[in-house]
Design goal:
membrane, Hyaluronidase domain-like, structural constituent of nuclear pore, elongated, 670 residues
């Protein structure tokens, strides 16, 4: 029985430990996901606002021009196309990093196939045996499935779909060259040629692709013969036809998507986009490609008339997920075939992401996530709405009177505060009056809440970094509030607050926008002398109440008794000013304490002696430091302090005698 009980005990402990590990692992994954989402938002911010405008180097220009060069020039000067390009580059970069991370962690990578794994070996052996099946292809060329309306054997088809899923993954990460190499190594060089036409050119309209292609004359020679953009349109139209036919004949969703990605065919592209990033990438890339296609069409003879017809088609297009194909006659009308699938503006693109009729339900759900909403607002350039969203997520409820009470997710507070600071820096030259008011006012609320959160978590040393970015009054109010709350805390805690203020704020007022240490300390000293009614027990002795109040007033001087770090500007001068201000306030308190301590009681006036003890160390500073200040009353204040020191020394002796006298009186009466 003992052994059975012991076994049960061990099993229970093991089970609890196992459950704990499962929960811990889940929490760690959630934290990792949050950090990755934050990193993605920061990356988007850099792509949209931090990355400079790139100009095409003159050494890449060729004459006669090419469609790819014209496409790159168009994207450089067109704001909407440039926005789409940056969104696409951002999403491809995220996907590429995820692939590298997966390879590093798991030791595997998409496209790790054996040579010739894309060859239809099972179908080949089946045909060699002379077997016949209406559903199986009779030839092994790559057009056989669509031409014969039949399929490879299931094993080959499954292998093909797996290969194309990896090709899709690489294309999604912007790794076109790797995708083509994968096709070649798998025994499908024809597929690589269909993805990279014109001798392996990367036709993506970016400076990177243009520089990588270099001054290759292949495309120029082709277009000299056939006309600019002719082969471009022909390739786009061919990939469109391929994606449609593959999808209609159930040739595989990834194969259809691979070709749909080349021709902006969202109808065949979105079914494989089961996450927000992929769906957004598909729409942004398709829209970018269509804009480029329209620009290329405009360059051909008679292209202006066709360009106007495209504009009319765009105006007629609902742009809200209507995937009905336009009646077309061939490549000459490209990109009319896919025009009505594209969004008309960024707002329309984001609406498509929210539409469950257009995208996968997981994409629609992801649109409700906070980081996704942040990213969509950044794409829209609607910074005021973005700040309102963040503030609503972290702000207290409406019935809470204290608007600066830390509330909500600490991670979002941190992210929001840092986002405000970065946006203020990046958009300093672009802020109009209304926009400036929003980013300063709401931004201050967000930063203030994060600073208070740090304060409540005992990270006082970090508060100054954020408080220094607040408006003058808010900065001063914040530090005054903190100093009053920490008045009775340890010297270490108060020293952290002192350093946080003196290191990150100017010592003296410089302008109307920034708070200063002098303003803070003057407010603290002034408020400390206000008599707080009801703070002490009414039943206690009036003398004791005055004694406790004087102690609180005296403790405030400690804020002036810390030595500022040598790293701040004019550290010696600041030290002198602090000591002098402490001396002046101490003398003021001595006068007040002398008036309220005239009762004939043996208790020593705590406030006065606290001031004396606090000022003992600062007054050990060399006299020249004090005399270096601009105040001409230094000597007078020093003499007054010495007089008060002597006075309270005599007062202490008197009260000691009084104590002895009262003790003797008690003995005599006893």
């Amino acid at each position: 029985m003992v052994s059975l009980h012991f076994l049960r005990h061990i099993c229970c402990r093991y089970g609890a430990s196992e459950r704990y590990r499962i929960v811990e692992n889940k929490l760690m994954r959630q934290k990792a996901r949050l950090l990755l989402d934050e990193a993605a938002s920061w990356s988007l911010l850099w792509y949209l606002y931090g990355k400079g405008n790139e100009e095409l180097p003159e050494d890449l220009f060729v004459f006669p021009t090419t469609s790819h060069l014209e496409a790159c020039q168009f994207v450089t000067v067109n704001h909407t196309a440039q926005l789409c390009l940056r969104i696409v580059q951002w999403l491809e970069r995220l996907a590429s990093i995820a692939l590298d991370l997966d390879n590093k962690v798991r030791g595997s990578h998409v496209g790790t196939y054996l040579p010739s794994s894309g060859v239809w070996h099972h179908t080949q052996r089946h045909l060699k045996r002379g077997a016949s099946n209406l559903k199986t292809v009779h030839h092994l060329d790559f057009d056989a499935p669509t031409r014969e309306h039949s399929q490879q054997l299931p094993d080959d088809k499954k292998q093909d779909e797996s290969l194309l899923e990896d090709v899709w993954t690489l294309l999604r990460a912007g790794r076109l060259e790797e995708a083509c190499n994968l096709c070649r190594s798998a025994g499908q060089p024809w597929r690589a040629a269909s993805l990279c036409p014109f001798g392996g050119f990367n036709l993506f309209p970016s400076l990177e692709a243009l520089e990588k292609n270099g001054k290759n004359r292949v495309l120029q020679a082709i277009e000299l013969e056939s006309g600019i953009g002719h082969q471009w349109r022909l390739w786009k139209w061919a990939t469109y036809c391929a994606s449609e036919k593959i999808a209609v004949q159930d040739g595989g969703k990834y194969e259809a998507a691979v070709y749909a990605a080349q021709c902006s065919n969202l109808k065949r592209l979105l079914p494989v986009c089961t996450d927000w990033e992929s769906a957004c990438w598909a729409m942004a890339k398709s829209w970018l490609d269509v804009q480029v296609d329209i620009e290329i069409a405009r360059l051909r003879p008679g292209g202006m008339d066709q360009f106007k017809s495209f504009e009319e088609a765009i105006e007629r297009s609902p742009g809200q997920g209507d995937f009905a194909s336009q009646p077309t006659s061939g490549p000459d009308s490209w990109p009319l075939q896919v025009l009505n699938q594209q969004p008309r503006n960024v707002s329309s693109l984001l609406q498509k992401l929210h539409s469950s009729d257009t995208v996968h339900e997981a994409v629609t759900r992801a649109c409700k996530e906070q980081q996704r909403q942040i990213e969509m607002n950044l794409m829209m350039g609607d910074i005021p709405h973005l700040l309102n969203c963040i503030f609503s997520w972290i702000s207290p409820s409406e019935d809470d009177e204290n608007i600066f009470r830390p509330h909500g997710d600490p991670q979002m507070m941190r992210f929001g505060a840092h986002l405000v600071l970065v946006l203020r820096y990046l958009l300093a030259d672009q802020m109009k009056d209304t926009f400036r008011e929003k980013i300063m006012t709401v931004g201050d609320f967000i930063i203030h809440m994060y600073a208070m959160f740090l304060f409540t978590k005992q990270h006082e040393e970090l508060v100054g970094i954020y408080a220094s970015q607040l408006a003058r009054n808010r900065c001063v109010d914040l530090f005054v509030h903190m100093m009053e709350l920490r008045l009775n805390s340890s010297v270490h805690v108060k020293h952290k607050i002192f350093l946080s203020a003196v290191e990150y704020l100017p010592f003296s007022p410089e302008d109307d926008t920034k708070g200063s240490f002098e303003e803070i300390i003057e407010r603290v000293l002034s408020r400390s002398r206000e008599i707080s009614v009801g703070k002490h027990d009414e039943s206690s002795d009036i003398t004791e109440q005055h004694r406790l109040q004087s102690l609180q007033k005296a403790m405030v001087i400690q804020w002036l008794c810390f030595t500022p770090p040598s790293t701040i500007n004019d550290a010696k001068a600041v030290t002198g000013k602090l000591v002098l201000r402490a001396l002046m306030h101490g003398n003021l308190l001595f006068r007040e304490f002398a008036l309220i301590s005239m009762w004939r009681v043996p208790a020593i006036p705590t406030g006065a002696h606290t001031v004396l003890s606090l000022l003992a160390e600062p007054l050990k500073q060399p006299t020249e430091i004090l005399l270096a200040t601009d105040d001409h009353n230094v000597s007078e204040n020093l003499r007054e302090f010495q007089d008060w020191s002597e006075y309270y020394s005599c007062d202490a002796k008197y009260r000691n005698w009084l104590k002895i006298e009262l003790a003797n009186a008690e003995v005599s009466s006893g």
